[in-house]
Amino acid sequence: MALGAFLSCSAPGPSANYPSRAAAIAAQMHDPSSKYVVVAVHRGDWRNWPENSIPAIESVIAMEADIVEIDIHRTKDSVLVLCHDGNVLRTTNFSRVFADQPGKSAKISDLTLAEIKQLSLKRAHGVEIDSLRMPTLREALLCTKDRICVNIDKGYDYYDEALAITEELGVTDQVLIKGKKSIETVVAHEACYPHNMMYMPVVDIQKPGGKKLFQSYFDQNVVPMAYEVCWQDNADGAFVEACRKIVGQGSKIWVNTIWASLCGGDGNDDDAAFQAKDPGEVYQQYLDLGVSLFQTDRPELLIGWLKSVGRHDLK
Question: What is this structure's pTM?
Answer without folding.
Answer: 0.95
